[in-house]
Write a structure and sequence with these properties.
Largest sheet: none
Structural class: mainly alpha
Number of strands: 0
CATH superfamily: Formate dehydrogenase/DMSO reductase domain
Number of helices: 19
Helix content: over 70%
Distance between the termini: 22 Å
CATH topology: Formate dehydrogenase/DMSO reductase fold
Radius of gyration: 22 Å
Order of helices and strands: HHHHHHHHHHHHHHHHHHH
Amino acid sequence: MTEEIDAEQVLQPLKETTRQFWIVLGLLLLWILIALEAWSHQLTYGIFAVTGLGDWGISGEVPWGLYIGGFVWWIGVAHGGIAISAAVRVLSIDRYQVIARIAEVLTVLALAMAAFNVVLDLGRPDRIFNTIIMWPWTVHHSPLAWDIAVLSMYLVLSLTYMTLSLRSEIAALRDQLPRYFTPIYAFITVGYSEAEDEKIEQILWWMAVAILALVPLLSGGVVPWLFSLIGAQPGWFGAAAGAAMLTESLTSAVAGVVIVAAVVRYAYGWHDFIDDHIFRDLAIVMAFLALGTLWFTLHNVLTGYYMPPVNIAAMTAGMLELHFFWIAIAGLIGSVIALFAMIAWPERFFNVAAIGVVAGVLAVTILNKKVMFVVEGLMHPTSPPVTNLYPSGWYAPTLSEWILFSGTIVLVALGFLLASKVIPLVEIEPSEVEA
């Protein structure tokens, strides 16, 4: 069982700033400057000139690539992240309370990065306002218009959920928190009184129930449904599309929580309450989710080989020739074998560092699959007038794309680093603080 949380130990990162903190902060800011330079280059010369994206014509390129694949990946991470926190509250799994806030912060940051990926793909930041203003018209033909609506709803829901969960805690900790963040704490606790605690708990419980209902509906339903309506591209539809997207989203989310929890545990010495049992249980969840992802991938391949329509057969054959596809398969198979080995023989194979490495492999593998999911259908247009005008496309991310997308990962790392100086990353009961 997880040891009792030491409130003083949880608060230490807010009170003390180490030399290592400044080194990591400097490295993250340096990479963000590099990413800003890449974005400036893209804004100056245009997204098509720099990446080849945004055009579907005689050049044989595709309109969407790493940015939209990254957008779908971050959305999946966000869906699964908030689902973990909601499940802890609804099912009263107290031993996992220590990772609930990590999942909440990951959700908010992932949603922000999903939105930023859309901005990157639009080429100019101001175009996002056109998408919002023209939403009643663009919603009829653009999956991204729907996604922006879903993303906004999830961001408001997640921020509200996390803010409400912080109110009583911040109020109890007020004298022990950094004074220079007083305006933030004042905003979180505006109008707070102890009499509201019971009501807030009820609200949070019902919000958690709503979140758990929305995750399969949105991540496993609405998003794949929206893609499936674009019939000109094969591969964006099928009986397993929703279930496959749901397992992939949850896999990447659990992997993200494992990575952050492992880093935080190592950085702050929180081995007592973020203990090995939590990582073993998360390894079991990741193992079965990765196995499910592998199963649905096999399902898609079989669908493309057993008496398929001509366009599906062509896309499947092209997919199986891609090195990225086999890298994804190797990542899934290797991760499943490693995780089940840790589960079956923990005394021989289990350790937190190894689980963190496997989680990293799974996160990259799911990102790879999301990019292929977006690009594959666009590389093989099948409906007139597209087939009469344009050849099959070709796509490989450019250096600018890699730098900018990696910048979103660095921004999430920076977000966690700064959050550790503003709020406790592990939830503390007010009674423990007062004691």
